[in-house]
Amino acid sequence: MDDGEDFKMLTLFSYPELYGVADNNPYGLKVFAFLKLCRLAFRHEHVFDAHEAPRAQLPYLLDGGNIIGDSDTILSHLIVRYGLSIDRDLTPGQRDAHLLIDRMLDDLYWVMSYSRWKDPQFWPLFRDKILTTHPSVTPAALDAARNYNFKRYYYQGIGRYEPAAVYARGLADLQVLDNLLPESGFLFGAAPSSADAALYGFIANMYYFDIETPLKTFLLARKKLATHCRSIQAMIGGYPAIHAH
Fold first, then answer.
1. Which domains are seen in the chain, by residue range?
2. Among 110, 170, 180, 240, which residue's beta carbon has the most beta carbons within 10 A?
3. Using an 8 Å Cβ cutoff, are 57 and 25 in contact?
4. How far is Cα 173 from Cα 70, in angstroms, rounded to an integer?
5. pLDDT tens series, the chain, 245 aa
6. Strand order of the sheet with strand 42-46?
7. Interaxial angle between packed helices 26-37 and 223-236, expressed in degrees from 0 to 180 and rounded to the nearest 10
8. Burial of 112 (0-12, 13-18, 19+ CB in 10 A)
């Protein structure tokens, strides 16, 4: 590949993998799955430091000379820029449902993040896995990130709840998502849409993790969500180990 071709290659910048999942952040994994489902060639650059990202948030995409941040904005850019058909057949009602699902996943994000960084029962497992999988990360850096997240949880509100109330909120989200899935196929039909990429980004980051949070326990008992996750995983390639106890 010459320098000109390299410059044109899509590059996804997102957090590193964990437990065999391509990105341990659901938003980066959402974009990763979308690119794979649409069969767009891209490079995947794993980074921990988000200071140079738009709004200092990961993921972001480099497309030629364009830098695009925010997972939804990235997907919209790619659909228009490359004439992608992944959502072309969605009805107006399905597009509305897609938006509502995205907003519910935004809510679920806080519970998932809380389970990793704040809950003292699961934090040591998450910390140790990061340190052993990514030796370049120091304990001090993780402690700083944890303190930063504690502030985020407090100001967002979820950090002021007891763990049982936090998980009740996340389990309610998961139950609705399970209700929305058909017995077979994907959210809106026989083929996946970008909403399925988003759902996978979140579910895979609980289902494949060897951390037995209440969220994972719930998923292991819900056939539709688990089947959906495995189906998308099979389509994008790779089979992380499933640790069910």
1. 7-81 (3.40.30.10), 92-236 (1.20.1050)
2. 170
3. no
4. 22
5. 333 444 468 999 999 999 999 999 999 999 999 999 999 999 999 988 877 778 888 999 999 889 999 999 999 999 999 999 999 999 999 999 999 999 999 999 999 999 999 999 999 999 999 999 999 999 999 999 999 999 999 999 999 999 999 999 999 999 999 999 999 999 999 999 999 999 999 999 999 999 999 999 999 998 999 999 999 999 998 545 444 33
6. 42-46, 10-14, 60-63, 66-69
7. 60
8. buried
By C-alpha distance, which of 219, 194, 226 is closest to 72? 194
Contact yes or no for 228/181 (Cβ under 8 A):
yes
CA atoms of 67 and 55, how far apart (whole Å): 11
Residue 168 in tokens: 């009740």
Phi, psi angles (nearest 5°) of residue 5? -65, -40
**Nearest alpha-carbon partner for 32 in 209, 208, 204, 189:** 204
Cα 197 to Cα 24: distance, rounded to the nearest angstrom: 15
Backbone φ and ψ for 112, nearest 5 degrees, come out as -60, -45
Specify whether the CB–CB gap between 209 and 26 falls below 8 A.
no
Residue recorded with tokens 């037995």: 212
Strand partners, 43: 11
> For the chain, how long is the longest CA-to-CA vector?
55
Length of the chain: 245
CA 49 to CA 193: how far, in whole Å? 30
Instruction: State both tokens at 218.
Output: 């719930």
